[in-house]
Specification:
Strand order of the largest sheet: 2-1-10-9-11-12-13-14
Oligomer: single chain
Distance between the termini: 61 Å
CATH architecture of the largest domain: 3-Layer(aba) Sandwich
CATH superfamily of the largest domain: ANL, N-terminal domain
Structural class: alpha/beta
Number of strands: 24
Radius of gyration: 25 Å
Strand content: 15-25%
Shape: globular
Number of domains: 3
Number of helices: 18
Length: 559
């Protein structure tokens, strides 16, 4: 039984159990297995009447919702290929991706999204609203078994972020997804253990991205109660409405939660602040396997009971774990949540690996690493310590791009483009992107990401830090946010003291304009478009390197 047959069967076997929820105006709206099955059947009827044929692409352009999920399942059940798109991207970018995959039908969440598509693509294929898809009478629903899918049959095309060029459509087939759900389900079994009630899962990340989509499908296949957030500005309130057992996160949110807690503690004078700080020091020493004195043991016990436990309950009273992906999480943040009694389980992967290559074992977490390779998947290091992967999770290719597909492989190993390392127990760490390596005039190959993260953590008020310096005498940084030259100089002084000479950042430019998805400097999932950023600030970058015979301590430009 493939993943889609399993999900449809699960809905039928649990007709009265809540299958999916979403938040609307401070309330929870739920559908049971039977109700979600009816929505899928209703959408299948619309798609069939619209002429969608096996292998046709159907673009889904809408935020997370119960109906988005039903439409996605319906497209695959009809033998079509779902093409989920990020509704916040610029219409011109969305149209570029749709022109690439030539959808037979475009389904939009609202009229403004449809208008954006048609305004940039006057001869677009038929574009309808989700309201249209679910407006049909129930007698027109299609309750046939889902289309028969071989492992090699494509079920979705998910577009990559396009950090170093235009986005490419990653084809994932039924075999990729079926295999991946078996892996995610097994890991969650280890986390949750034997239980008679369904997992409760909260999800705020867009389901058009591979990792989010896999969590959605995993939850449906497990019979979990998945709550979809519909307002990112109200995450705290929505979490209280649907207190989850676990949730998928990106590092930036966990970093913000940690910073917010530390800020609140800093405002508390006296006993609470002292106990928190001393308790953290003792906990970190114990984590580093240092011997604790009697007073440390007492302080740690008190901090755990009176402070850490209280903070943990406010983050999420029912949380068993936080799952984190999309980018490496700072080790300090992972340790922080572990101190509170909340394990952070990291996953690593690409869209091309059906979202996942590694997953932390719930009972064997190594802070700062992203876990071992999932069962059945092989990983090794190639040239420049590039992570190479092969296994049933590897995609068959990019849509209509045979040259790029061939370039993505070394023999039968997928070249991830990520630079990594692995310890003796098989736990991986991701250091940076091979393509992002900066080679200054000294000839050293430098991964910019660890240095950028270090500066960002040392410079409160900064939003983004991006290094430049390929072929130059030294490294420099483009920094956005509410920071002054004096603050940047102080931060670089501190960071550089920890770095070898060739990695020190000796110039910077402060920009008042942030990097955003809307201005085209970030990808849909928040990664730098380094080439476009460097092009935008070409003049400022050149000014940093003018008249340089020997690298200065700090050369600055900007406000």
């Amino acid at each position: 039984m493939n993943f889609l047959e399993n999900i449809i069967e699960r809905l039928k076997l649990s007709p009265s159990r809540v299958a999916l929820q979403e938040t609307r105006d401070g309330q929870i709206v739920s559908v049971t297995g039977e109700e979600l099955g009816r929505l899928v059947a209703q959408a299948r009827g619309f798609l069939r009447r619209a002429g969608l044929k096996r292998g046709d692409r159907c673009a889904l352009l809408a935020p997370n919702s119960i109906r988005w999920t039903a439409a996605d399942l319906a497209v695959m059940a009809e033998g079509g290929i779902a093409v989920p798109l990020y509704s916040r991207q610029a219409p011109s970018e969305l149209v570029g991706m749709m022109k690439d995959c030539s959808p037979a039908l475009v389904v939009c969440g609202d009229e403004s999204l449809r208008a954006g598509v048609l305004g940039n693509w006057p001869d677009a294929p038929r574009a309808v609203l989700l309201d249209d898809v679910f407006a049909a009478e129930s007698e027109n629903a299609v309750n046939d078994p889902p289309a028969s899918l071989a492992d090699r049959d494509a079920v979705t095309i998910i577009y990559t972020s396009g950090t170093s060029g235009e986005p490419k459509g990653v084809i994932l087939n039924a075999g990729n997804v079926t295999y991946m759900l078996s892996c995610t389900n097994a890991r969650l079994d280890l986390l949750m253990g034997p239980r008679d009630v369904p997992d409760r899962v909260f999800h705020y990340l867009p389901t058009c991205f591979a990792g989010s989509w896999i969590l959605l499908l995993t939850s449906l296949a497990r019979g979990s109660i998945l709550t979809l957030s519909t307002d990112l500005t109200k995450l705290g309130d929505e979490l209280k409405l649907a207190p989850p057992d676990y949730m998928l996160n990106v590092p930036v949110l966990l970093d913000r939660i940690r910073a917010g807690i530390e800020e609140q503690i800093a405002k508390r004078e006296g006993f609470v602040q002292t106990l928190f700080n001393r308790g953290r020091e003792a906990w970190l020493r114990r984590q580093a396997r240092q011997k604790l004195g009697f007073s440390d043991v007492v302080v740690l016990a008190l901090a755990g009971r009176l402070v850490f436990r209280v903070i943990r309950s406010k983050v999420g009273p029912n949380l068993r774990a936080l799952i984190c992906g999309s980018a490496p999480l700072a080790k300090e943040s992972q340790l922080f949540f572990m101190m509170l009694g909340l394990p952070v389980l990291q996953v690593y992967g690409l869209t091309e690996t059906t979202a996942i290559c590694t997953m932390d074992h719930p009972h064997q977490v190594v802070p700062g690493r992203v876990g071992p390779a999932i069962p059945g998947t092989e990983m090794r290091l190639g040239e420049d310590d590039e992570v190479l992967v092969r296994g049933p999770n590897i995609f068959p290719g990019y849509w209509n791009r045979p040259t790029e597909t061939a370039e993505a492989f070394a023999d039968d190993w997928l070249r991830t483009g990520d630079q990594g390392e692995v310890d003796g127990q098989g736990n991986w760490a991701i250091i940076g992107r091979v393509k992002n390596l900066i080679t200054p005039a000294s000839g050293h190959n430098i991964a910019p990401e660890p240095i950028e993260d270090l500066i960002l953590k040392t410079l409160p008020g900064a939003n983004h830090v991006m290094l430049v310096g390929n072929g130059r005498a030294y490294l420099a940084a483009i920094i956005t946010g509410a920071v002054t030259r004096e603050q940047v100089e102080a931060a670089l002084e501190q960071v550089n003291a920890e770095l070898p000479h060739y990695k020190r950042v000796r110039g910077f430019h402060i920009s008042s304009e942030p990097f955003t998805i809307e201005n085209g400097l970030l990808t849909a999932n928040g990664k730098f478009k380094r080439g476009l950023i460097a092009a935008k600030y070409r003049g400022e970058i050149e000014a940093l390197y003018e008249r340089v015979a020997e690298a200065p301590k700090h050369r600055a430009s900007g406000p």
